[in-house]
User: Fold this.
Amino acid sequence: MYPGGDRQKVCPGLYTSLEVGSEPASGYEVAVAETAVVADTEDGRIVHYLQPPVKLAPGDKVRGSIDAERRRDHMQQHSGQHVLSAALIELYQIPTVSFHMGEEYCSIDLTTPSLTSEQVVGAEWRANEIIFENRPVTVRFVSRAEAEKLGLRKLPPAERDELRLIEIANFDLSACGGTHVTATGQIGSILLRKTETVRQGMRVEFVCGGRAVRTARRDFTALSGSAKLFSTQLADVPEQIRQTFEDVKLLRKQRDEALEIHPVSDLQIEYSLISRGPEQKIFPALAELGIGVTAYGVLSRGLLGGSKPAAKGDLRVLMPRFAGDNLNRNVKLVDALQALAEEKRVRPAQLAIAWVLAKSQSIVPVIGARTRPQLEESLAALSVQLSPEDLARIENAVPASAVAGSRYAEAHLKHLDSER
Ligand SMILES: [Zn+2]
Assistant:
């Protein structure tokens, strides 16, 4: 267990049992503290904070354990950093000025104006060679004067008279207070990642040991997912992406040329609270091109107004949304809409029209009416004001995914190419 600070992450411990009493034999368990956080005090003592708190008297004995998995991870990153920094000196004489250990990855800052990809690969391979050779890593304490004679890779600023040296046999010697492996093989492997320019030089991200395996697995999953999309090999993914960009550029150019010859100013398409397909691809494309929308089927053939097929010859019985159990399920959605409409003191049909009006200024709903009262009711929807919160509540009450049945029968849908 050790506190965080400087370049170190806190390493908490676990108190699994506490024996309290002046003699170990008469010790008894008073409590189990689940975590201990450790902190430095100004006078140099180290304090362990127990959570939950446990009262202890001088002479009481406690038994604690470290989080072994976290400690191993810290050791792998710490020692891996020494190996990498030493490899960068050995191969390219590039010094490391600082080290950062994050929860996901680590990074070092280098005093160099640039770093080529060959240098990245070279340093990575040299560092891994040192790991494969399983060189001993030893710790010793020396005076500052001795350390100056030994020629460390990096001598810390003068603060303490005694320095803790970490030595990787015949490869690196540097002062460090971190936890380290006893032989380089325990680092496992080192994987260099992103490089970027920072104020004082270049920053190199890297991961060691278990992190390297997890990172490589995550990268592989992402890359093989992309390869599957393109039905290609992993190595061909960048070329496939480049080709796809080229294709998209060409298609856009052709589309713009076509629109110059035959401009489109408006698209008429079915759109309602329960037919929201165009939101996926069509509306974004229209918005990009400045093309308006005339929306029909805003009430989904009366369904959203509470109308059901009744008389013989009502063609709606042929539509999946009005058929059998689908209709029962869809009526439940209309009931939910009805409840919200009552709150607003309007009819469900008015709320459904107002929803379309509020979705976008470029959508003009087309409303059919068989009678004057129906027309009056629809026109009154113009004065229903809906806030973004209202829209969200309506869409939650009538989720597009809950609609049962397609707009048309399967055979008819085959002729529709708009929402494929
Ligand atoms: Zn270190």
Observations:
- Confidence is low (pLDDT under 50) at residues 23-34.
